[in-house]
Amino acid sequence: MQAKLRCEVPELLLVLGMLIAAVVVWPFAPERMPVHWNIFGEVDRYGGKLEGLLALPLIAVGCYVLLLVVPLFDRGRANFSSFRGAYATVRFSILSLLVLVYACILLTAFGRGINVAAILPLAVGLVLMVIGNVMGKIRPNGFVGVRTPWTLSSRRSWNKTHRLARWLLAAMGIAVGLCGLIQTYWMIALTATVFVVSLSWMVIYSYLIWREDPERITPADISPSPGDEELG
User: Fold this and answer.
1) Per-domain residue ranges of the chain
2) Is 206 exposed, middle or buried (0-12, 13-18, 19+ CB in 10 A)?
3) Residues 27, 32, 37, 42: what is their CA dihedral angle, to the nearest 10 degrees?
4) Residue 225 CB-density burial (10 A; 0-12 exposed, 13-18 middle, 19+ buried)
5) CA–CA dist 30, 48 (Å, integer)
6) 166, 173, 174, 179: which is closest to 138 by C-alpha?
7) More confident residue, 185 or 5
8) Which residues of 178-197 are buried (b: 16+ CB within 10 A; e: fewer)?
9) Which member of 2, 105, 112, 136 lies 3.0 to 4.6 Å from 231 by CB, making a disulfide possible if both were Cys?
10) Res 221 pLDDT > 60
């Protein structure tokens, strides 16, 4: 129980930090705040103080609650205890990204010159690489990971597809990061191509491995297997 509570502390601090920041800066924030940027880091939509200061913190609260409770209703919930650390990393990465976006909103609103077009893609790329690094530790479930009909009906397909996903997410992360450094249309097109090819290959690969697995199971059977080992 104590281990579970310790896992919640980092995520709670991120969410509480956003809420506290909203309260602290409220009296000083401008009535017109940036809430969206285009792909070149130019503000293309402004909102009121209520939207600018509270929308993202409330989204973070919603994400935290969703990521916390959904595993309780997953038919593969018994597996979550075997990759608690990896799941905590995924949750922390997502919430950290929201915190960074919120920081960009506040800094821009208060006239601080920041290069959003470089900062956010680099952050997204890093998050993809961090999540990719723990993909091999995620066990079969119906909520997180590469969930195709074939990974959910073959442990071999699940394991091998997630090994592959580790490298493909790293490639996607590098592409997004480079997109932030090289802000051109051709780089955006290349990044989109990397995404499409990587995601498509994950699906195709999961099917190819499933087809060769003589021990494939039904999609509903994702209970823990004593022989499963972490694939870090």
Assistant:
1) 2-212
2) buried
3) -110
4) middle
5) 8
6) 166
7) 185
8) bbbeebeeebbeebeebbee
9) 136
10) no
Using CA of residue 214, residue 204, residue 170, residue 4, what is the dihedral sign? negative
Cβ atoms of 109 and 30 within 8 Å: the answer is: yes
The Cα 228–Cα 209 span in angstroms is 17
Query: Does the pLDDT of residue 223 top 80, yes or no?
Result: no
- End-to-end Cα separation, the chain, in angstroms: 24
Residue 28, CA atoms < 13 Å, CB-side half-sphere: 10
Look at 19-23, 35-39, 100-104, 163-167 and tell me which has the smallest mean pLDDT. Answer: 35-39
Judged by average pLDDT, the poorest of 18-27, 186-195, 220-229 is 220-229
| pLDDT above 90 for 218 | no
- Higher-confidence residue of 222 and 181: namely 181
Using alpha carbons, select from 133, 120, 40 the residue that is nearest to residue 85. 133
pLDDT at 232: 45
| Proportion of the chain in helix, strand, coil states, percent, rounded to 5 | 70, 5, 25
Copy the structure tokens of residue 45.
């939509």
Q: If we measure between CA atoms, which residue out of 93, 97, 102 comes closest to residue 29?
A: 102
